[in-house]
Amino acid sequence: MAKCGGCGPGYKTPLDAMKGPREEIVYLPCIYRNTDILKPDYLATVDVDSKSPTYCEVIHRLPMPNLKDELHHSGWNTCSSCFDDSSKKRNRLILPSLISSRIYVVDVGTNPRAPSLHKTVEPTELFWKCGLANPHTSHCLGSGQIMISSMGDPSGNGKGGFILLDGETFEVVGNWELPGEAAPFGYDFWYQPRHNVMMSTEWGSPKALANGFNLEDVKAGHYGTSIHVWDWTTHKRIQSLDLGEEGAIPLEIRFLHDPAASEGFVGCALGGTVFHFFKTQKGNWEAEKVISVPSKKVEGWVLPEMPGLITDILISLDDRFLYFSNWLHGDIRQYDITDTRNPHLAGQVFLGGSIQNDSQVKVLEDKELDSQPPPCVIKGKRVPGSPQMLQLSLDGKRLYVTTSLYSAWDKQFYPDLIKEGSVMMQIDVDNVNGGLKLNEDFLVDFGKEPGGPVLAHELRYPGGDCSSDIWL
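Given the sequence above, the corresponding structure tokens read:
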């Protein structure tokens, strides 16, 4: 922790965060919805301290009080955006439920290794006070409030609005956006106050994606293709950048961590592309495609062409490398983004996926690979599913990976994942010259959980990380 008289949570700068302590535990939601097991989702605490006797083990499980919530992403009650406020503590983890629309507030401060449930915000609070549902991304604000993006309205239609929670009581305050300003769809968001801007993305309407993916829903306009630009001060939507077919289903969005930066990246799942967005000299915003993962011509699969399906993306705290996962092809990539308009591939590793050389899928034409990759086996365990959620260590040297995307899509594309549960892996990162290598001594097998195989999703460190902290 950077030394500072009476400072609040987090770190003064992203580069200070890189010098923070090595991660010892991680939190991640574990999901039973769409499996054959009727049990509540839970928050798992995993020991990642290589010197610990319980290394690579789940050391605590906090079950939620309800069934079929679909825990998904998480955020903090406070982060580095409140670094100057010594009254703030990062002691609550915010856990929105994608399907039930509940928001759980978890006490991770009293006993970080054994969190407890602090409060439940019921869905009716979101419905009545905000007209919103299906909460997704949670970020704390410098004001002390918590903001959570929504994907829909209470009827399951697409609606990209934002829920404000009081940072002390966790009561629903109301909407962040002005009346009538909600976007057609919602998903992720990131704000950059120095440029008076927030950017948000689009997945699709909850009722279209609730039970699986259907290409007809894309053709019918139930999935998004735009990123939205918001005025941070007035809360008005001032621009919508339509990325077109190449930018279909823009999911995770990341500004560079440098709070003075006026640019970032968004990963587009169906398009298999990454777009670079930036502020122009005129003061408006534009986006350009800078990375494209070619689809592969295949047989033995649901469609004749298989996209990479870029799902999670991350930027290292020094803004040097961009990482993303191709959930269908099965690889994780590292790009050097020193020149943000011309990223170049620096590392790649295959960890499962749909084109393994012993699968029923035959690749007929591939613009990148000479042969189909072999299965990924760690400690005798064949990895089911494919790499999906990513979290990078503060120093940028270790990349943690889980394999579940969203239970309905897991069930559709990787039925073995439902039966066997997901895994958590660790990639050794060369953050000087570039390069990725699987750590073959690290494996957390969620197929061996006491309640039965479970789907593990997004990872968080107690002290904050490169996808939850925002600097002002």
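DSSP finds six helices and 34 strands in the chain. Try to locate this feature in the token string yourself.
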